[in-house]
């Protein structure tokens, strides 16, 4: 499933083409994706100008001039293909990613001549509409935690979120009610860089006093760093993810922990090896030697 960097990569690919353009025609080739499209979906979008496109956690939100917002979730295999008259850019990185047009489910025809196609093989993605001014109360967002790339995310906030939590640290970081948008790949990478065990109690980072512990400072810095590096690299190519121009992300070539079972740990002076364990049914990759 695309994680925060992949979703942000897609948003950055869509925004220059879609912001400021009107939706001339919205073509629906089925009744829904993971869920049915909302009532009057195509009619409510047709003629609307797209004011801004933002990301909230793993969602893309297009704010429309009429006061509604188009909410998009890519699911596991959802992607957008941007086509302008006379041009289409296929995959640029790693290997070609074939497009099966039978899975083109939604097509947005824009006033600037661009055509934006939503393709989703497994149809686990979805689209919804909501009032822009009330998004934080919308069912998709009202229980969502803080943004890990937001201005308010720092060691003090992380300590506050983790204080008293008796769950493993990795499980707490993946809890979208605490921190929104973090996924398995980047949590594994951030914990390895911060030399923190995914098995330790989440509350152990909070400490007893008002000041955040050094571990919380390290972890917040590494969470930001790994997400920003992944966005700059265009995300990670795992199974089906591709950016809007078909280009495949290449952050996976810098993985230090995720998927590196048996590899030598790259932490300075460590000498250990990366192990794989299972936590709550999901793979965790870490070095038991230096992650404590």
In short:
By secondary structure, the chain is an alpha+beta fold.
How would you describe the overall organization of this protein?
The protein is of the alpha+beta class and about 290 residues long. The protein folds into two domains: about 5-135, Alpha-Beta Barrel (N-terminal domain of MutM-like DNA repair proteins), CATH 3.20.190.10; about 155-285, Orthogonal Bundle (Helicase, Ruva Protein, domain 3), CATH 1.10.8.50. It contains six helices and ten strands; from the N terminus they run H-E-H-E-E-E-E-E-E-E-H-H-H-H-E-E. It has helices at about 5-20, 40-45, 155-160, 170-175, 185-195, 215-230, and strands spanning about 25-30, 50-55, 60-65, 70-75, 80-85, 105-110, 115-120, 125-130, 275-280, 280-285. The strands form three sheets. It has a four-stranded antiparallel sheet with strand order 1-6-7-5. The protein has a four-stranded antiparallel sheet with strand order 2-3-4-8, with helices on one face. It has a two-stranded antiparallel ribbon with strand order 9-10. Strand 3 (about 60-65) and strand 4 form a beta hairpin.
């Amino acid at each position: 499933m695309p994680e925060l960097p992949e979703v942000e990569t897609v948003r950055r690919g869509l925004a220059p083409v879609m912001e400021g353009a009107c939706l001339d025609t919205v073509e629906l080739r089925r009744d829904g994706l993971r869920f049915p499209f909302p009532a009057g979906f195509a009619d409510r979008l047709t003629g609307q100008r797209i004011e801004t496109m933002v990301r909230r956690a793993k969602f893309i939100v297009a704010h429309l001039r009429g006061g509604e917002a188009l909410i998009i979730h890519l699911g596991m295999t959802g992607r957008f293909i941007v086509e302008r008259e006379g041009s289409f850019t296929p995959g640029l990185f790693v290997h070609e990613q074939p497009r099966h047009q039978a899975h083109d489910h939604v097509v947005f025809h824009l006033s600037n001549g661009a055509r934006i196609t939503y393709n989703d093989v497994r149809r686990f993605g979805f689209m919804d509409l909501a009032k822009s001014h009330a998004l934080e109360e919308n069912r998709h967002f009202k229980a969502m935690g803080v943004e890990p790339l937001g201005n308010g995310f720092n060691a003090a906030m992380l300590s506050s979120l983790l204080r008293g939590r008796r769950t493993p640290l990795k499980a707490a970081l993946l809890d979208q009610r605490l921190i929104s948008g973090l996924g398995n790949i980047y949590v594994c990478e951030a914990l390895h860089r911060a030399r923190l065990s995914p098995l330790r109690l989440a509350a152990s980072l909070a400490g007893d006093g008002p000041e955040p512990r050094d571990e919380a400072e390290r972890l917040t810095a590494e969470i930001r760093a790994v997400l920003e590096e992944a966005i700059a690299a265009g995300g990670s190519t795992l199974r089906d993810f591709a950016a809007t121009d078909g280009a495949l992300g290449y952050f996976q070539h810098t993985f230090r922990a995720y998927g590196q079972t048996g590899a030598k740990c790259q932490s300075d002076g460590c000498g250990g090896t990366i192990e794989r364990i299972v936590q709550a049914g999901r793979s965790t990759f870490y070095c038991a030697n230096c992650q404590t």
